[in-house]
Amino acid sequence: MPPVPVDRQAHNIGQRFKDMSAKFSGKADQLWDDYVLQYDLVTHDYRVDAVNKLAVLHNILAGEALRFFLDHVVGNATTHSDAC
User: Fold this and answer.
1) Among candidates 72, 66, 52, 68, which has minimal Cα distance to 10?
2) pTM: predicted TM-score of the whole model, two decimal places
């Protein structure tokens, strides 16, 4: 089976997390580990490699969590594990 282009993977993942209730925003009642687990399952389904898991991680974030990710994680983390 040929590899799925990265832009297609990002689109597919974005569709799975397009509903705001599926995104992590950093609210007190949300557990980061639950969102990462769900993200890991989805990226496995779409055969996203380790490098691109970091590149499309923003798809599961919203609000303050997304702002934090863009301000402090992008450019500093080199792997998905580092970012999480």
Assistant:
1) 52
2) 0.84
